Every structure is written in structure tokens, then in C-alpha cells.
Amino acid sequence: MRRTLTLDPQRTALVLVDLQEEQRDHPLYAVESFDAVLANARRLLQACRSKGMQIAHSAYRRDFNAVPRRPLEYVSAAGGPAFSDKTSPRTAICAEVAPMPSETVVWKNDASAFCEGDLEPALRRGGTGWIIVCGVWTEACIAATVRDAIAHGIRVLLVKDACGSGTKAMHQVAVINLANRLAGGAVADTEATLRLIGGAEAEVWAADRPVPILFDYDDAEKLYQSL
């Protein structure tokens, strides 16, 4: 359902997830339309900085020394992590959204930005009640981050066009699935989110019950656009 929302900038944080160089042009793990996702994330980041809002960056950097290889985890031919190896320069956060010294940075060994245990206390210290979430991949690290935020009692504003995945279909279906279970949160696009950051009200999509959207192959894109 559509409803009007306002956010208190002093109790809202921006969380950027896995906006790393390997997502830009990796032959196996590039994100479709990554430049557009990155550009929208950068606009959100600049707006939040201008308001003095809390900002956190999380990035996947797999380190078998910190967290040993899991029993069924994929590995490279050399026996190291199959992607986001800590030794690869491609795990660097993209320059367009590079963190400032005052901003929280979480290097993680699993999907969720909350998995290392550092993010939730940092948000609590800032009195955060809402987080604005953007980044990649929508069905993986974004989904895990959103679900963990809800489990911690933190409301999520999912910015659908500042997230992405390997294909448009993967991304759109993931957003719908998250919307179906986004308890206490909302879905918006970048333009609406910028209005909210600026202190104005904006129309967003919010579920009024669990799983309000039933979709099929032929109507998923239309339903995504309606969010």
C-alpha cells in the first residue's frame, strides 16, 4: 500500500552495502546497471552528509584467517575464496562512494552488514531507529542486511533503484520478496528518499500485512514499478 512517510535525520542512518570495484566489471560478478546504482547511492550519500546523518559502509572481504572456510563454501582454483578475496584490490570500496574518516566501515565475511557484530552497536550509539539501505546484490547481501535489521528492531527504507543484482529480473524479484516481508519498513526510489533526507514528506510503499504481493512471471516487473 502507498502511504506518506517522514524521517527524523537525527535518528536515521545510511547503510551502503558492497559497493566495491569487483561489482563494476568482474567477468563473473558484475552488477547489471552498476553505474546507475552507484550514481544513485552517491546522491544519497552526499545528501546524508549534508545533513550530518550517521553513515555506515559495509563491504565483503573474505578472509579465511579471520573466519575459516565453511564446509561447503566455494573456493578458487588456488584454494582461496572464490570471490571478494581479501588480497584482491577489487574489494576496495568504489571511489564514488568512498568513506570519510568519520564514517563507520565494516569489513565482513558473510552476507549481512550486521554479521561481524560491529554495525548494530554503532547504530544504537547514534540513536538510530531507521536505516536507509542501498547497495548490491539485492537477493543476497541486501536481503540479509534487511532481515537482520528487522530482527534488531531497526526499521528499513529500501531504496529500490539504488540497489542491483546480476540481472534486472534477479533484482526486481528480490525487491518484491523483501517488500513482502519488510515489517515496519518501506520501499522508495531515490527521488522520494532524497525528499525524506531533506526533511520533507514523501510517498512510499509499505506492507500492511505479511506477503501482500502475489506475483508471477508476467506481472513481476509491473509490480516492482508500483513499489
In words, what does this structure look like?
By secondary structure, the protein is of the alpha/beta class. The protein has a single domain, classed as Rossmann fold. The chain has 7 helices and 8 strands. Strands 4-3-2-5-6-7 form a 6-stranded parallel sheet. Strands 1-8 form a two-stranded antiparallel sheet. α4 links the parallel β5 and β6 (155-164). The longest helix is centred in the N-terminal third of the chain and has 17 residues, at 34-50. The chain is globular and about 50 Å long.
Q: How far from one another are the termini?
A: 8 Å
| Radius of gyration from CA coordinates | 17 Å
Helix content: 25-40%
Total of helices? 7
The CATH topology turns out to be: Rossmann fold
Task: Enumerate the spans where pLDDT stays under 50 for 5 or more consecutive residues.
Answer: none
Secondary-structure element series: EEHHEEHEHEHEHEH
DSSP strand content: 15-25%
Main sheet properties:
6 strands, parallel
- Which CATH architecture? 3-Layer(aba) Sandwich
Determine the CATH superfamily.
Isochorismatase-like
- The total strand number stands at 8
